[in-house]
Amino acid sequence: MTSTVTALRTLDIRFPTSRELDGSDAMNPDPDYSAAYVIVETDAPDGLSGHGFVFTIGRGNEVAVAAIDALRPMLVGHDADALLEDLGATSRALIGDSQLRWLGPEKGVMHMAIAAVLNALWDLRAKRAGMPLWQLLSRMTPEELVALVDFRYLSDALTPEEALQLLRAAEPGRAERERQLLERGYPAYTTTPGWLGYSDDKLERLAKEAVADGFGQIKLKVGACLEDDIRRMKIARAAVGADVRIAIDANQRWDVDEAVEWVRALTPSDPYWIEEPTSPDDVLGHARIRRGVSPVKVATGEHAQNRVIFKQLLQAGSIDVLQLDAARVAGVNENLAILLLAAKFGVPVCPHAGGVGLCEMVQHLSMFDFVALTGTTQDRVIEYVDHLHGEFVDPAVVSDGHYVAPTAPGFSSQLRDDVLRDYEYPAGPVWRAIAEEDAR
């Protein structure tokens, strides 16, 4: 007996992180970390539901919710088993709707809404399988994995046959790497010390704590004031010592030539990479910056709109580090395409995380990459920020500088029911209390 999708529930969930300047950077000084949240419900007797979301930083979250709502007719009333059994076809159907696709195509808020829905479906599929998503993906055959990917616009750089070869080459060591992952976890780095709104004392204290907690890399936000950045980098380097990597992140602040000059001014403190130095769409600009700041590495990707931008970044030799995001491109399927592209070009993937639920979800993608694709964690780390984890049913856990491999079934993307109630915007009790306080 088949099951049917009975509801696509959406919620506008926001956290008042701007009050403590958590998440602050040169381009986003006062973010309220938020989730345009979706729950896929079915009439299956197991009572399981799939949870996904679009990550935003406050205003505009309602726009993302509306975009998810626009997908409701494509799911509600449809055969849930058929949707889940062929998520390659489901992905292509959601992305390929001609009228909604016009709003991108394949980029922007509509594309992110599709990510939320597809990720929720993957969450449900993994729950039904009784496995965490990384394990579900890692145990699929190369042929099954390739069938999930849309190779249109990619075949000049990566063909289905090449993708099969990459996945087949990694098959022999899967079981041993899964054992290693469960035993040791996956390397992490932390951005917790580096928010631009933090004082020098707080930066120094948190940087020292990061080293004590086992992290081999931290990250600092830069780009507002060069003099401040030079001072803060010196403080961070003195705090962590010579052997810990310090990445820097400009959050798209600079023009191309400005980026080169700014990074060169910071090189005495030995930055490991410069992240998002300019517009995320400027493929050739990143290539020029990379030539200009070497040996400092160039990293980007959290705002890259789709697999085509990633393809071009790799083809043009624009990046040393690829930073995919679990909730910006069209979900798990498109991220599989991006992981395969990175493997083909030999570029390490160090995902963007930190915001609401991004740590929880992206860990699954990197762990799949290790077990079933590249087979290595060399120069690969997942970003970690130490807030907004306890709000999840299956929160990300970092121990001794490593993500602990999740074992609970699903995509680790489900917020607790009380959190959904308390932080719904604007009517939840947390936001009502803030409104009353601001009105005084």
Automatic annotation (TrEMBL):
Keywords in alphabetical order: Lyase, Magnesium, Metal-binding
SMART domains, sorted: MR_MLE
Residue ranges occupied by any Mandelate racemase/muconate lactonizing enzyme C-terminal domain in the UniProt entry: 200-296
EC id: 4.2.1.68
Q: Source species, please?
A: Flexivirga aerilata
Q: Which GO terms describe its biological process?
A: amino acid catabolic process; carbohydrate catabolic process
Which EC class is this protein assigned?
lyase
Q: Which Pfam families match?
A: MR_MLE_C, MR_MLE_N
Q: Could you say which cofactors this protein requires?
A: Mg(2+)
Could you tell me which PROSITE patterns the record lists for this protein? Answer: MR_MLE_2
Fetch the SUPFAM superfamilies from UniProt. Answer: Enolase C-terminal domain-like (SSF51604), Enolase N-terminal domain-like (SSF54826)
Q: State what protein this is by name.
A: L-fuconate dehydratase
Q: Which GO terms describe its molecular function?
A: L-fuconate dehydratase activity; magnesium ion binding
Q: Which InterPro entries match?
A: Enolase-like_C_sf, Enolase-like_N, Enolase_C-like, L-fuconate_dehydratase, Mandel_Rmase/mucon_lact_enz_CS, Mandelate_racemase_C, Mandelate_racemase_N_dom, RHMD-like
Q: Which reaction does it catalyse?
A: L-fuconate = 2-dehydro-3-deoxy-L-fuconate + H2O
